[in-house]
Structure formats: structure tokens, C-alpha cells
Amino acid sequence: MSDAGRESVPPPPTLRHVDPDNTVRILLATDNHVGYLERDPVRGQDSINTFKEILQLAVKHDVDFILLAGDLFHENRPSRDSLYQVTALLREYTLGDKPVQVELLSDPADGKAAGYDFPAINYEDPNLNVAIPVFSIHGNHDDPQGAGPEGALCALDVLSASGLINYMGKFDLPLSEADAQTAGIAIRPVLLRKGTTLLGLYGVGNVKDQRMHFELRSNRVRMYMPRNKDEWFNILLLHQNRVRHGPQESVPEGMFDDSVDLVVWGHEHDCRIVPESVAGKPYYITQPGSSVATSLADGESIEKHVSLLQIQGKEFEMKPIPLRTVRPFVLEDVVLSEAAEEEGFDLNDQITVSKFLKSRVCSFCR
């Protein structure tokens, strides 16, 4: 649905009374794209600097965990430098002696690395001191590659095996077209509890939009929810096209399970982090947007944010937090015919036109 067609509704109510012992605090971000333009002499460290700021905000706001909705890395095979810096930052800011306040209720072995004994959820491992767990799905930039006996792997698998990230939303893709006709998509949750608040995290990593569209319309996306699902606050993370690009090249907003309370939408880079209601549905959608600009698009010029998400029982509130390390991104329309008349230069003189445009760009750098 376009912005123009969306009904204007107030944001969801804030928590009337925050009880720290029963309130889950989450730092929410997506599309970090670490490694974007890493060889550029000016912008090379932009993505990693902002990822560091996000981790620092998690420590500052004393969150229970960090939730990422895909594209942590810009490349499917990130450079050694990108992988090294992300690994070092996660170790620096998410390990420590602070006790984790959210209790895992689902099976700690669900989703663990095949052939190994350590649990899938890092803070359940007695050999690790985790202070701030990080949960993440994969996006279209850092998706798993490969199939067969070894399975599909990506950089998140490496971080998961090292005990730094809890990689969720990974499922086996069918190996043939015939398998795809009967496979469907199964989403198994990470079930958490803090005091009286029950929280279900349902993640589905990026798949082709045509397939996700088909699976949703065919009612073949199966979310394995507890029997008392209405007592849980259920979050669905996905990483798909939200803006319509064709008949089946996006995912409709209104096709998710009615038991979902909040959809965290990754992949779209413009920041629409304030939760938006969906006509005829009980859930809200939040679209955090990217933490680094990767294209010359209007949406990238919107101020970048992450969010402090607080959940107590079935109520929640979100506090957008602006990112201070993001390089300013400015868009301006220039009508050369009008500029030529005002400045008195010849439109056919390409050198003069280039000098004029360069001066306009440089004016924003001062």
C-alpha cells in the first residue's frame, strides 16, 4: 500500500507503566550492509562505524538483546576485513558478565549446527559469557549459498558457530522444482520469557519474492506457535520487497498470521520505523530502514534510526533513536535551464555546466 493510500492512524499506545522486571527491552536494527564501499578512501569505514554505534547504543540503553532483520553484511562473501571487524565488535560489546534476563523456553538444540553439541542459542552455552544476545535473520545480500549434504552456509553461520550471533530464520530450500511444489516454509520460533512477559521471535530469512508471495497466498507458511499463542507477544522478522515491483515481486502486508503482533520488515532502506497499522489486521509493521545509504534514492536521504522496543505483556512501545555516525545524504533537484538563465551560462557549454554542478555539490560539503 502506498503512503497516500494508507489511513492516517495514531501510533500504538505507549506503555502505561513500565515494570522493569516484566519488560523486555530490545534494540532493533536492520540492513547494516557492513562492507559497503569498503575500498572507498572517503566512505570506506561508514558502515562499520555505524554498526559500532548501534552496539554502543545497545550497551547504553541496557537492552536485553539486539534484533537484526537481515543484510548485516553487504556481500554474500564478506571480505576478511569486514568479517574481522564485525567479529571483534560483537566480542567487544556483547560478551561480558552481565546476566541475561530473558529465559529461553524453546528447545536450545533447535537450529543448532549439525554434528556439534553446542546449543543454537549462545547464552545457553556454559562455556560462553554472553551479556547482550544478538538475534538475526539473513537478507538477500548475506544469504546462504550451497545445498546438498553440506547444506547452505553464509557468514552468519560462521558468527553463530563462534558464539557471537544467534542465527534464526534459516530453513532448507528445496533442491528441485518438484520439491518446491510441496515444501512450503516452516517458521519455528525462539520462545523467551522475562517475568510475566512471553515473547515469540519468528524469523524467515530472505527468499525470492515470487516464492514468498506464492507460499503466503497458498497458505503454506507454517508458523509453529504455542497452544496458548494469544498469551504471547509475537514478532515476525522478514527481509522482502515491501514496495510493489510487479504482480508477484513483493510481499503483501496483510497476509501474515493474525496472531502476529509486530512485523519487523527488513530490506527496504527508507526509514519508516514508527509502527504502522495494517487495514483489517491486528498487527503493526515497523520498517527500520538501512543504517548506511547504498543507492541514490529519495528514501536513503531520510534520517537513519534504530529503535528501542519495549514489550510488557501484550503491549509495546517504540522509541526511535537517530544514528549520529551516518554520513549526511542530501538530494536536490536542479533545473539546468533555469540555472543557466539565473547564472548566465550556455547550456551547450559542457565544461561550464559541469563546473556549475560541481559547485552545487560542493556547497553541501562546507
Keywords:
alpha/beta; disordered N terminus; 15 strands; 2 domains; 366 residues; Purple Acid Phosphatase, chain A, domain 2; seven-stranded mixed sheet
Low-confidence stretches: 1-7
Broad structural category: alpha/beta
Number of helices: 7
Which overall shape is indicated by the principal axes computed on the Cα atoms? globular
Q: Give average pLDDT, whole number.
A: 88
Helix-strand sequence: EHEHEEHEHEEEHEEEEEEEHH
| Record field, number of beta strands | 15
Record the SSE blueprint:
Elements: E1 24-29, H1 46-60, E2 65-68, H2 80-94, E3 103-104, E4 134-136, H3 155-161, E5 166-167, H4 177-183, E6 185-187, E7 190-194, E8 197-204, H5 209-217, E9 221-223, E10 233-239, E11 262-266, E12 272-277, E13 284-287, E14 305-312, E15 315-322, H6 336-343, H7 350-363
Parallel strand pairs: 1-2, 2-4, 4-5, 6-9, 8-10, 10-11, 11-13
Antiparallel strand pairs: 1-14, 3-7, 7-8, 12-13, 14-15
Family: Belongs to the MRE11/RAD32 family.
Domain Mre11 DNA-binding: 316-361
Pfam family, one: Metallophos
